[in-house]
Amino acid sequence: MHMQQGTEPEYVVRTDPGAVARARASSLRLLPRSAWAGVVGTVFVLLILGGATYLIFASGADPTFGTKMVLVLCLSGALLQLREGKHRFAAIRRIKQTWAVREISPVAMRVTGEGLWCVVDEAPEPVFLPWAAVTHLQVKRRERLSVLLVALIPNAATAPGVTGLDQPEVRRRTGRNGKGVWRLSVPVFPLHRHPVSETEIDRALGHFSRGRVRIR
Does residue 200 contact residue 148 with C-beta atoms inside 8 Å? Predict the structure, then answer.
């Protein structure tokens, strides 16, 4: 456990700022490409739909109800994709603004007697989760990247003491697993290529939460 002078004891999950910087640079290259690819694909679908609709009505044929429904559904889906593309570009602008003014945090998570303090790099503000809002944690490894999965109580965003969970970037990293449990995903690039220690985190969770929250 990491002890800071003049403060309460805490356990700190540290991350590699250099690896995070490289991940940021990669994201800033790939996210706009992905967003533009989605928009171009949707426009292409709209052009095909427009051409098909024109040919149907120009031929003088009376389209069946089923044909009309297919065209309407395809058009609605394409318009929803355009709307999603607009949201993705807005999210990219927000991330760029956040990264332009916020330094990379060398800490991904702090475990204290009050709860968990987590950093989602894309979000402007950190997330604080009191112990009452957390049920358990899991650790997943993907090559150099470790992912801390923080299982949350239902409606955790509105639970007393919780802060930062309602940020759009944090919501995108929060979802249900196969059992219907809401989980917050916190990526960690460990220092010195060492994986995050499940044993250390479990020991810290058990100590600071008084045995309530553990690794599962």
Answer: no
CB 54 within 8 A of CB 138: no
The per-residue DSSP string of 138-154 comes to EEEEETTEEEEEEEE-T
Of 202, 199, 175, 198, residue with least CA distance to 188: 198
Interatomic CA distance for residues 38 and 44, integer angstroms: 10
First to last CA, the chain: 20
Q: What is the pLDDT of residues 43-74, one digit of tens each?
A: 777 777 777 776 776 766 666 766 667 777 77
Q: Which two tokens stand for residue 168?
A: 């759009």
Closest to 119 in 3D by CA, of 195, 6, 14: 14
pLDDT digits (tens, 9 = 90+) for 142-173: 878 899 999 999 999 999 999 999 999 999 99
- Report the C-alpha gap between 160 and 157 in whole angstroms: 9
